Every structure is written in structure tokens, then in C-alpha cells.
Amino acid sequence: MTVDPKTTVFLPRTDFPMKAGLPALEPRLLERWKTIGLFDRLREAGEGRDPFILHDGPPYANGHLHIGHALNKILKDIIVRTQQMQGKNAEYIPGWDCHGLPIEWKIEEKYRAAGLDKDEVDIVDFREECRVFARGWIDIQREEFKRLGVTGDWDHPYTTMTNRAESVIVAELGKFLLDGSLYKGAKPVLWSVVEKTALAEAEVEYHDHTSITIWVKFPVVTASVPELEGAKVVIWTTTPWTMPGNRAIAFGAGFDYALVEVETASASGLATVGERLVVLADLVEQVAKDAGCTFRVVARIKGEALAGTVCHHPLKHHPEANGGYDFAVPLLAGEFVTTDTGTGFVHIAPGHGEDDWHLGKANGIVIPDTVQADGTYYPHVAIFAGQSVLAQGKNGKYYSPVAKGVIAAMTECGTLLAHGKIEHSYPHSWRSKAPLIFRNTPQWFISMETNGLRSKALAAIAETRFIPAQGRNRIGAMIENRPDWCVSRQRAWGVPIAVFVEKKSGEPLRDPEVVRRIVEAFAAEGSDAWFTSPPSRFLGNERDADAYEQVFDILDVWFDSGCTHAFVLEGDEWPRQSSPASLYLEGSDQHRGWFHSSLLESCGTRGRAPYEAVLTHGFVLDEAGRKMSKSLGNVVAPQEVVDAQGADILRLWVAGSDSSDDLRIGPEILKTQVDIYRRLRNTLRYLLGALDGFAVSERLPLAELPELERSVLHRLSELDQSLRAACDGFTFHGWFAELHTFCAIDLSAFYFDIRKDALYCDRPDSLRRRAARTVFDILLDTLCKWLAPFLCFTAEEAWLARHPSETGSVHLEQFPTLPADWRDESLAVRWAKIRDVRRVVTGALEVERAAKRIGSSLQANPILTVSEEVRDLLAGLDLAEIFITSGVELAVGSPVEGAFALSDVPGISVHPRVAEGVKCARCWKVLPEVGDAAHDGVCHRCADAMDVAATAGGE
């Protein structure tokens, strides 16, 4: 019976599909992991190992995940998985931030849409609505995170709204209360008139805003030097609405000022010829231009000489002032005064600015209250009582409606010099998108100095590892310059500032027993107990409840999240967690957010940071580098990517991106990820197919492996070293690019290409074929484990294709420990040179193929002319196999003129000669021997392989 040679070729066979079908595969694997209890088994496997604790920064539970969430959680998952597979016990506890304005704002929106007033609802009922809202979104986000392949204790996450969490938060606040750090004070804070609450720095974003600008003349009533008699000091401001709050003027003590006289004035201007004004000497020309007049410099005055000068308020003589502005306005030296814009003088409204407040306090100036919580002036504010400082126009843009009134009033008083407009960067609420104001309000603060909080935080920063390193400088500068921490909010949803204030002294009650009772009540019933219990429950029988005022302000949500280390890393709810955490990981904006508040909270209560290392990633932009927005139509929703292409494509994007900088994503970038994924998948598929029927008995020891196989193992050991460095640095994109090159070039285009002939056509017991399959087995095992943290679904699919099991998983494995004797630097150098020679031959054959003189490279038997050095390099190698030709003739000498050569590989030339003989029907090599073997139409090697196959079949 004649045997068809083609049927005896050992072609790869595998059920691992070429097309991944990730959207269908991934949910099945998620269900499998749930069925086999993968998370619990990981914990069992990690028992006794050193812990690695990545503490989760809690996202808000108030909407579907966006692409930034996907980046953050996938990166965390990659890090946790790599640490687990390096032999650590890396338990990930996901969490959610549930209090604060984002959720309260959503409930208020529902009330506004129904025409209801939230303030008329019982506060406990309102808080319960917020709680239910948060729970609903936690359930949605939990499933969306799980769909991304993020492994964690999803059945037992942490939230800031559990009874235990709220009791710990109030206990942490109690520590600041008891040590004297917590105090009540009136101070200007960034205030949202739309949301009627103070905002933290982390809740503020900056956008362009158009403001009205005014130049105002303050008449001098007491002159420090004779030249100032009868003069007017000119200020410039972009906030006309703050003028009712003016109480002083700041100047630069080291600056030169000029007394000028108005020489000419335009008919439409507000300057008066002959009046004398004081401005910064360097800005005389600019002020004259702004005011539409000309000046004559009368005198120069040193800034320090202005001390002691007193003006009166520009609205003092307004007919409706009624004494409301009848007070002195002194000139005070201020270090914050600049010379680049304005007039060199800064109007000081101590209730509306940080610098203003400090300067006022330092000089004993009373801080006035002028603007109410809703952005309207108090009734006692002369001329402007009840008017709004901020409103939204019909075009949706915000403006200051009172600005026109201020301009009109000052024009009537003759104290306005000019007015205009300016577009500048201005603070806005990141929720309502409305501009903010600085407003003096009674608030609760944690002192940065009373117990050395600033110095403790700076010392902790110095001891913390930051990735990237510049993060240390960024957060350090913030801590160095930050004011006291304002921890109070005028809201309803959150942990209350559970403090009593003695009515007689105005001082907070600092009683450990009262704090203990509050903490116990919160632990039993949650923070609603503060609103439902009589004060006597907390004050005890020994105190008169009528003598104390109960505080109902709500804690800043950043204080809540800053306490997560206290109720997640400490205590017995998650016994495998410990403090400090190995790593905190969030976006770079969290230097002023969660990293910042966690640092201050922990340093204030424990004297150290809650983390050993801090890693930051950038923001996600579209392909053009623009911020994503619905209006631009450039939003990439992770759910849509997962549904269309699979979560592993998103995970590949994260792994292959430099997350220390801003990242980009879009259709073309995702298409590139799909191409990369396909090459990685094809590598796994080829290995699986080539290992069909592989038995342990086939394996060869290192000493018996050919050089080619040993060079591959050397490259694996290099990649292993790179991977471990990447894991240590929590930065993977460089290694992932290296791995992709290894699969696409080193393996597919080189090693697989060369060994394909041996795999398909050698007899099963040939050393060459056994060597290749030995290394293929190592490659598949290693690649599956290496890819597991990154492409968690695909690695599992490939692993199970190789190791079918009802309960097994690649995620229960560890990274392989590669033998040290795989490293062979001299061998690597040798094979790098061999590959250069191969490039020359391949290049010559490509020219022949393009000219259609040959089809396959197996139709060639080139003559290779080389130097003696190259001849020695190639000695002992099967060059036809390496070059994938039917033969090679090696000649020693100088490169042949007219032969193919490459300039970067000197001393080698190739004459691409056509092979002589007949094409083997089995291996397709063109050889003279074909036809004289036992099997017709095949070469000697193939005939031998067919005989072995026939014998094996007969057995």
C-alpha cells in the first residue's frame, strides 16, 4: 500500500482557536473562577508568605465606570497579580467612597426635578436615600470591575458608609479633637454658591472664565509722606463683588511707586485732569493706557515709605452708604504683591482671600462677613444687600451680576478710574462646573502646626518611595505651603463632625469618655445616631446638655477616605491586611487628594505615612491628545470596548502603555492593540499545536540541547530578569514591548521559522525535534505564566488547553524560577552575529522572490562568500536549516562584486543560486537525492521518518 507522504508530516494540532472570541470567552472564565473559588484558593496558597498590600483608593459610587477607572483598576490588578506570582500573598480589598457631595448632589437633582425642596425632607430620610443610591451603584460598578478581570474580595469590599467605617472615622477625628489639633475658626475658604458648601482643593478644577476688571481710586485721608496729601491710591481687581468687603490695601515694601498727575483725559474716560494718583512706577504707562489718559510723574516714593498711610473706602460718600463704609482703610506691606499686572496695589478683602485674611489677622483688622451661603450679600451690607455675586446667564455661562452695580456706585462717587474684562484661569467646582468664590465662614480646621503635623508629614514624605520620583517634590511642595485643613462641610450626607461646643466658652469639648460613647453609638447604629439621639446619650449624666451646642456640620469626604487605612489595614475585619500598605496607586491628581489626606490623617494620628510607596498614573486622552467629552464625541467607554473586543484588549493597552504620563486611546490605538494581541495569541497557538502529543520522556537536558535552543533559553532568562525589574518598579510597558518583540521576531520570524522543518519532517525521536519540543514546552509554560497578570483570560485559556483540569488555573501558579545556567552571554553574542549573516541571505532571496526567479526560499541553494572569521562562526551549523534553503555552499574570500550584500554586515556576499534536483513531496526541499530512496518522491530523511511512522503505526 502506497503511503501519501503528506499524511506523515507532523503538522501542529490544537483546539486553541485562532480567533479569540474574547467577549464570549471571558464571561465563561469569570464564571469558572467563581465556581472553583479562585480568590479563596489564592489566599490559601499565599498563607505564610510575605504580604503585599495594595490599598485601594475608593472611587465614588455614583455612575458607570469611565476609561480612567478601567486604567486604574487594571493597573492595580496587574500589580497585585505580579506580586502574587512572585511568591507574595497579595490580597486586594476593593473599596468605595460613599459620602459627600457627588452622591448628595444626585439626590438633590432628583428633588429639584420634582420641584421639591431637599431642606424640607427629614435629614435621616434624606441620608437613607443617599445610602440606597450608593449601594445601587456599588453593585453596578462591582460587576463592571469584575468584567475587566480584576480579582479581589468582591464579596466583602470596604465602603466608607458601614457602621464600622463611620465609627472609625469619628474615632480618628476624636484623636485630633483630644490632642488640640481640631479647632473652630472663621476663615475664607473656596465656596460653591451653587452647592452651598465649602470645597476641598481636590474638588476644584480650573477653567477659563471672563471677569469684569475695575481700577478703583482710594482717597488718602492720612498721608505717611507729604507727597500723598490729597492723592488717591489706585487698585486693580478682577472681583468687583469683593469691594464691599475691602478693609485695607497692600503694597510692596521693596517696590518703587510714582505719584502722578492726570494731564489729559478722554471724554469717555473716568480720569479727571489734575487729580493725583499713586501707582507702581513700572506700571505708570500701562495704567495710563488702561485709563485712557496721560500722566505726569510728580514724585517717586519708596514702598516702605507708604506704611502709615490711611485711605477711606471708595463708597464711603455714596448716598445709600448710610455709614456702612465709614471706616479706615490702611496701607499694609504685603509679600504677595506683584509687579506684572494691575497697579502695584492689592485691595484687601480679608473675608474673601487667603492672603487677605492672613494680612488682616496679622494687623488686627476685623474680618467682615459680607456674602451669605447662597451667594447673596447679607442684609447689613450697604448699597448691595440681597444682590447676587454670581449667577448663570441664559447662555449657560456664569457671571457676576453685581459687578455693574459696583461700577455704577463707584462712578457716582467719582472713585472709579476704569473698567474692562479679562479672560483668565479661575477655580470651578468639578461637580456643578460653577465658578467658586472665597468666602469667610465658620469652619472646623485641623492645625498644621499645633502638634507638628506639617513637619511629621514632610518627614514621612522623605521616607516614602514615589514612582515617578517627582511625585515626592509635588506633594512635598503642597504640604509645605498648605494652610490648616478645613474638614467641615455644610451638607447632610456623610459622617458628622461629632463634637460639642461649650456655649459659655465657645470651646470644643475635649472629653475622651464623650468620644468613646460617640464611637460606640456609631459602631452599633451608624452615624445616623448623631441625628436621632438626644445629646445626653453622648454627654453622659454628669454634663448639662443645655450648656453645649451640638455640631451638625459634615466631615470633608477627603477626611473619610483619608481614614480608610485605619479601618481596612488595621483591625480584624480583613486579618491579612496590615499597615502601612505596601503601595497606594491612583492618578497624579491624588497628590492633592487621597494621597494627601491619607498622609495628613495618618501622620496626625500615628506619626507616619499609611503607605511605603506611592505610584501615580496619568489621565486618559483621546488619540489627538484631547480631553474626552460627550460634546466632542471622543469618549471611549470601557464597557463598549469589552463588549466588542474583550477585556484583554483593554488590559493589553494598559500593560503596553507608559502610565506615568497621560495615555491615549481611540479606535486606531485599539486596532493596534488587537494586532499585537493577535501576534501574542498566535505564538501561544503555534506552541500548543507544535506540542501535540508531547511526552515528558521527550525532554532533553540542557547539555544535550543544540546552540539554537540554548540561545532561546538565554533570551528567556534575560526577559525574566527584565520582568522582575519591571515588577519591582511597577512599570511594565518597556518589558511588554520587549516580550512582544521576542514573540514576533525572536520566536515567530526566527526560531519557529528555522525549527519548523525539524518539527514537521524529522522522525519523532530525532534529537533536533526533541530539543525543539523541549524548549517549546518551556516557552509555553513560561509565556502562559508571564502573561497571566496581564492577559488574564487568554493566559488561562492557553494554560487549560495545555493542562486540562476541572479546578486548575494558571493564576494559582508562580512565575517560573529559571536556572542560572541558562544565561550564556558569549552564546548570545555568537547568535546575534549568526542572525546578521542570516539577514544577508534572507535579503538576497527576497530579491529573487520579488523578481519571480524563485518562489519559496527552499528553491535556493545560495553561494555564501565570507571571511575566515565568519566561516569559523558558522562552523558546525546546518546552514540550510538556518537560512531555510535546500542547501548552502560556503566560500571563503572577499565579497563578490555584483553579489548581494548589506552595508551593515560587512565581509559577506550572497549569490542566490537555484537549487538543483527534485522537490521532496514531504519536506519540499529541492535535492538531488529525491527519488532514489525507499519511498518514491521523497528525500532520504523523509523516507526514514516515514519508515519510523509506519513501524509505530504497525505496533
From TrEMBL:
Swiss-Prot/TrEMBL cofactor(s): Zn(2+)
A Pfam family matched in the record: Anticodon_1
Principal location listed in the UniProt entry: cytoplasm
Motif ('HIGH' region): 59-69
Record's keyword terms, sorted: Aminoacyl-tRNA synthetase, ATP-binding, Cytoplasm, Ligase, Metal-binding, Nucleotide-binding, Protein biosynthesis, Zinc
Family, as annotated: Belongs to the class-I aminoacyl-tRNA synthetase family. IleS type 1 subfamily.
Subunit-level organization: Monomer.
The protein's name in its UniProt record: Isoleucine--tRNA ligase
Species name: Magnetospirillum molischianum DSM 120
Gene from which the chain derives: ileS
